[in-house]
Design a protein that fits this description.
- With 248 residues, the protein is α/β, with parallel strands linked by helices.
- It has eight helices and 13 strands.
- The protein has a seven-stranded mixed beta sheet, with helices on both faces. A two-stranded antiparallel ribbon has the order 2-3. It has a two-stranded antiparallel ribbon with strand order 7-13.
- Strand 9 and strand 10 form a beta hairpin.
- Helix 6 crosses helix 7.
- The protein is globular, with a radius of gyration of 18 Å.
């Protein structure tokens, strides 16, 4: 399994707010967002990561290529017009095995990714991580049935309580439809997921816990709070295991 990371966005909202650092390098929980994603992917079994960053600044590229990672990381430096174009740039390296697809600004608990992957591998094909937490200006709503099959995307699912969480699992066959979607003039992951569903592709959804899409400066604090909660949970679990051990 590989990991593909979309990190070529310009981060214009952060720049307007006076935050000059490249968006992939914004620190959450003491680590740059892109580092968190690479390390999480490695933790769940990805053996190789691919990451696309824009060429407007060399900082992200230099950071990624000069850092020692737990798995090999191939970095593509290209400014793209949209998320689907970024995905298309990574596609040639993803045709041999299943892959996780991440947007770099998705902040999630590692436990959420692990649980998602367990469910996704049973479903195969294409699987979207879904959350009930909605704090995005343009959330992508997804409607699923009792069998987890996606029934509606975006405007076809606006009555659903679920939105995409920023990470996904796909088998390589989806890339054939990616080529078709690009040829049809689509220009976003949102449009691609709608295209998959309309095309009859077997698309599923797996519910995960709260995730934060770090699109605006105020999202940084929300993401920090999410990770603080994760640390407290880990500490509580460790204390519980220690107490159980002492009682035996």
């Amino acid at each position: 399994m590989r990991a593909a990371i979309l990190a070529a966005g310009r981060g214009e909202r952060f720049t307007k707010a006076g935050i000059r650092i490249d968006k992939p390098l914004i620190t959450i929980g003491g680590r740059p967002m892109v580092a968190r994603v690479i390390e999480a992917a490695s933790n769940v079994g990805a053996h190789h990561a691919l990451c696309i960053v824009n060429d407007l600044s060399p900082v992200s590229y230099n950071y990624l290529t000069s850092t020692t990672w737990p798995i090999p990381v191939r970095v593509i430096r290209k400014t793209t017009g949209n998320s689907l174009e970024s995905f298309t740039c990574l596609a040639p390296y993803l045709r041999d095995e299943p892959f996780l697809l991440f947007t770099v600004d998705a902040v999630f608990r590692l436990t959420a990714l692990k649980r998602f992957l367990r469910g996704a591998r049973h479903l195969g094909s294409g699987v979207l991580a879904l959350t009930r937490f909605i704090d995005d200006e343009k959330p992508l709503y997804i409607d699923i049935g009792s069998d987890r099959r996606v029934r509606g995307v975006d405007t076809d699912a606006d009555a659903s309580p679920y939105v995409t969480a920023g990470f996904y699992y796909f088998e390589p066959a989806v890339l054939d439809l990616l080529d078709m979607a690009e040829g049809a003039g689509l220009n976003s992951l949102r449009g691609f997921f709608r295209f998959l569903n309309k095309s009859g592709y077997a698309l599923f959804g797996v519910r995960v816990s709260k995730t934060i899409d770090v699109d605006r400066p105020k999202d940084i604090e929300l993401a920090e709070q999410l990770l603080i909660g994760e640390k407290l949970l880990r500490k509580a679990n460790a204390l519980g295991e220690s107490a159980a051990y002492r009682s035996t």
